[in-house]
Amino acid sequence: MTAQRPDAETTSGSIPGAGRTFTADVTRPAPGARGFDVFRREWEAQTGEALPLPSFDTGESGAFRIGVRAAKVHDAVVADVRFTRFVGRPSGSRELGDRVLVHLMSEGSWRFVGLDRRSESATVTAGSFLARRNGAPTLFDVAPGSRATVLILPTSVLDGAHDTRQILGSHDSAAMRVLRAHARMVRETVHELGGPAVLASRDALVELTRGALRQELDDAEPRLAPALARAAMLLADEHLADPGLTPASLARRLNVSLRTLHRAFAGTGEPVAAYIRRRRLECARRELLARWGRPSVTEAAARWHFADGSHFTRAFKRQYGETPTQAMARTPRLP
Length: 335
What we know:
The chain is of the alpha+beta class and 335 residues long. It has helices at residues 34-47, 174-189, 195-213, 225-238, 247-253, 258-266, 272-288, 297-303, 309-320, 324-330, and strands at residues 9-14, 20-26, 56-57, 64-73, 76-90, 99-107, 109-114, 122-125, 128-133, 138-142, 147-154, 166-170.
């Protein structure tokens, strides 16, 4: 995103009784703490609640330049954040409210430095997460170009967690994969949901975070089924070229039973195996219709793990209404 004016660019959308979404882009250099103050005003105007951070002193360089896409889900927030620059020392006495913040890093790093002897310091790198409870102010130092998803949640997510100060770990665990899939789904769809669905999405977010922090997943909870199915789809997409990809292998990676996984996919209208087959067919079709470097039909069938060319051709025709050869004939190759 690129700022359209010196302060910030924001948009929002809401449906009465439903969730809200908004974006804020504060990426141009601003003197002192002006960038943070602009962002705080926009955050509070769009989400309807105080940002759970104190005021920041970013020095003369005005090193608070971030872009955010966020969704408010009842009393929780899911925010995708990209950082151009963020180095700052709190100027307030403490962080606001009693909340839990979960920082899920996808790129770069985010360093938290305690400003008193009782506070712990931690660095969250790509592929890891930090869950922390609001407390003493912390100096933030985020590497330029970093990206993260930040969850702002009620303190109940720490019920049963082994550490109530801060928890640092990998976000590649089964429970964390499902949490990340649900957070992404919530941010993309919350503006379309009615009140009861928003509350259900919020409850699932809290329950999944609680399970992820305990490194376990309540696979009997029906509200978590959409998130589990989404996580399995994302995981399958990462391993479509793997000959060992099966519904059973996905269930093992997500630490649930195969029956639970099948039950989660029941709500999607497509069985797990059918999803894998369809996505592999999409990959094969894309290769066969490329303008250069096309494989043969037999090569594509083998690469995407169909039993043989005949089996691949039948599956292709069922999916697209024509054979691979017919599809290729309609899309000439470049000389």
